[in-house]
Amino acid sequence: MKQSVKLVAGNWKMNGVAADLTEVAALRQALSDTPPACRVALCPPATLIERLARDAGALIETGGQDCRAEAKGAFTGGVSAAMLKDAGATLVIVGHSERRQEFGESDALVALKAEAAIEAGLEPIVCVGETLAQREAGEAVEVVRRQVMNSLPLAAAGRPFAIAYEPVWAIGTGLTPTLEQIEEVHRAVRSAMIERLGLAAATPPILYGGSVKPDNARDILAVPEVGGALVGGASLKAADFLAIIEAA
């Protein structure tokens, strides 16, 4: 079955103020000059979503980095999926390892967040990935399969979504799995997606994330079942992010 168009999404994490939107302007101009072969998205801090969505142009989609599972309520500091949609976002990352590790988010909570995103009309990017201890114990495939099965809501069937495989030990460390390891896990993710949702899950992209850089992006993006990339630090600078986009 034909796979969907690749998606290259940048996660700015807790980086970026208004002055950094000059990088978005530079990226917008470069993509206008040479339209990309893939979908491109940027997920800035919530404070910049509305401005980025307004200024990014038609070729750059805007995403949030997280959302609450609840639609509204007494959750000081919380941001709902509907709020992200209202600010101009079309996607949202849920279950990033930093949320799982630092905030103790469970698979069940991630599934609720993904469902809330879908209900609000957003495309969730559901993150999964093993720790170094799990990788060294030979448990990577088992852990990731379990996360997919428990973090992907049934409501995702037939709706736009993506899975992002991010080995926790590779994020921001400069380390990456071998291409063979990436392929093994991505194939396991696809199998779990289909087991969970049926053939509706045969085409949504599976992104790879974890120290994706201009010098390794082409090889990673050529691996079977790698349907794009979730990029951290390299998405903060237009030139670096553009090189990864051009590799897709």
Describe what you observe in this structure.
- This protein has 248 residues and is an alpha/beta fold.
- The chain has one domain (12-239): TIM Barrel, CATH 3.20.20.70.
- The protein contains ten helices and eight strands.
- Strands 1-2-3-4-5-6-7-8 form an eight-stranded parallel beta barrel, surrounded by six helices.
- Helix 8 links the parallel strand 6 and strand 7.
- The longest helix has 19 residues, at 179-197.
- The chain is globular.
* SSE ordering: EHEHEHEHHEHHEHEHEH
Strand order of the largest sheet: 1-2-3-4-5-6-7-8
- The unreliable regions are none
Distance between the termini: 19 Å
**Name of the top-level CATH class:** Alpha Beta
* Beta-strand percentage range: 5-15%
Pick out its properties.
alpha/beta; 8 strands; 10 helices; TIM Barrel; 248 residues; single chain
In short:
It is built from ten helices and eight strands. The chain is α/β, with parallel strands linked by helices and 248 residues long.
